Amino acid sequence: MSTDRPTSENRLERVLAFMVAGSVGLSVLCIFAVLIATAAGAGAGDGFSRGVWPVVFFIPVVGLPLGFLLLVVLLIVNAVRRSREARTGS
Predict the structure, then answer these.
(1) What is the pLDDT along the chain (90 residues), one digit of tens a residue?
(2) Which residues cross the membrane (predicted)?
């Protein structure tokens, strides 16, 4: 059994998994930051339109759909790898 090919395929799956976790994790942290800042009164007087807050609001808008798409890609890559393994019998 060759060790080069499964290692690269496992590496791709690992990279995709970390990208999903990073994207969704950062989005969830940004959502919590907005919730905590709102409770602390940071948004009073249009405070969320200045500084870093527009970026913090935008990250979940992009990060969560990106995480979902990466998760779908990860599932497809995993299914293709498993079908190849089943076909070759190794």
Answers:
(1) 455 556 666 899 999 999 999 999 999 999 999 999 999 988 888 888 888 999 999 999 999 999 999 999 999 999 999 999 889 876
(2) 15-40, 52-77
